[in-house]
DNA sequence: ATAAAACGCAACTTCCTGGTTGCACTTTTC
DNA sequence: GAAAAGTGCAACCAGGAAGTTGCGTTTTAT
């Protein structure tokens, strides 16, 4: 059987999560509450602009969605891409598990 | 309840996976077979050195382990960190799920 | 109607990343 | 023992990422 090469978007997904600030933003938003940029910047030692950039990265990865409400733009968590990541982890884990099984069978012989 | 901020190493784990080349290397190695740098470089359009650098990144993240055997260094998949990633995804998903539950309960009232 | 809040855009800086090349070193192989 | 295979190390380069500052625009509040 062919080894399935992971899609390019899977890598970008991981890359979007590969930053402490973004990870923390996503963790906050995962409680289902919608937050503005100012709200997400409060309590951070970063600039509002920096937070904005990170949010755009998360949005491009599909992990977050934004909509303008009045003068502020609200961001919300979007869980769908998480499944893609799980799918990759599962495929890797399964291959690894299969290898272990074969190894055990071989040793027992 | 406090929102648990993800550890800094979780971010580096994601970062290590946030590259197509590294993702592909890890996918190959996840079949349990040990491979040399030359073996992993074969079939790639990249230099052996580039592959080496990627392998070092994976190794620092703990996703791979290496050992010198004669003149070549063998790399093997290391599944433990995968659980850390799953743990993060689960925590995020659970928070999200809880939020949905509360929302449904509220609407039904 | 003014002031303040919340944001977008753009320029700029700094640092990291992905990648290459060149060379030296150690093991194998013939 | 000489050639070839497999690496490691260091320098170097281009481009992208993270972050800041400055300024203009649109809403909201007083």
UniProtKB/TrEMBL annotation, chains A, B:
<dbReference type="Pfam" id="PF12840">
    <property type="entry name" value="HTH_20"/>
</dbReference>
<protein>
    <submittedName>
        <fullName>DNA-binding transcriptional ArsR family regulator</fullName>
    </submittedName>
</protein>
<dbReference type="InterPro" id="IPR036388">
    <property type="entry name" value="WH-like_DNA-bd_sf"/>
</dbReference>
<dbReference type="InterPro" id="IPR001845">
    <property type="entry name" value="HTH_ArsR_DNA-bd_dom"/>
</dbReference>
<dbReference type="InterPro" id="IPR036390">
    <property type="entry name" value="WH_DNA-bd_sf"/>
</dbReference>
<keyword id="KW-0238">DNA-binding</keyword>
<feature type="domain" description="HTH arsR-type">
    <location>
        <begin position="2"/>
        <end position="97"/>
    </location>
</feature>
<dbReference type="GO" id="GO:0003700">
    <property type="term" value="F:DNA-binding transcription factor activity"/>
</dbReference>
<dbReference type="GO" id="GO:0003677">
    <property type="term" value="F:DNA binding"/>
</dbReference>
<dbReference type="InterPro" id="IPR011991">
    <property type="entry name" value="ArsR-like_HTH"/>
</dbReference>
């Amino acid at each position: 059987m062919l080894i399935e090469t992971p899609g390019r978007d899977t890598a970008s997904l991981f890359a979007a999560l590969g930053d402490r600030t973004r990870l923390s933003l996503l963790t906050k938003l995962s409680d289902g509450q919608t937050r503005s940029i100012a709200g997400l910047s409060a309590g951070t030692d970063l600039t509002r602009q920096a937070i904005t950039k990170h949010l755009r990265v998360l949005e491009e990865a599909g992990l977050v969605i934004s909509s303008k409400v009045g003068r502020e733009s609200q961001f919300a968590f979007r869980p769908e891409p998480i499944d893609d990541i799980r799918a990759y982890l599962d495929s890797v884990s399964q291959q690894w598990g299969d290898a272990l099984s074969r190894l055990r069978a071989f040793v027992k012989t």
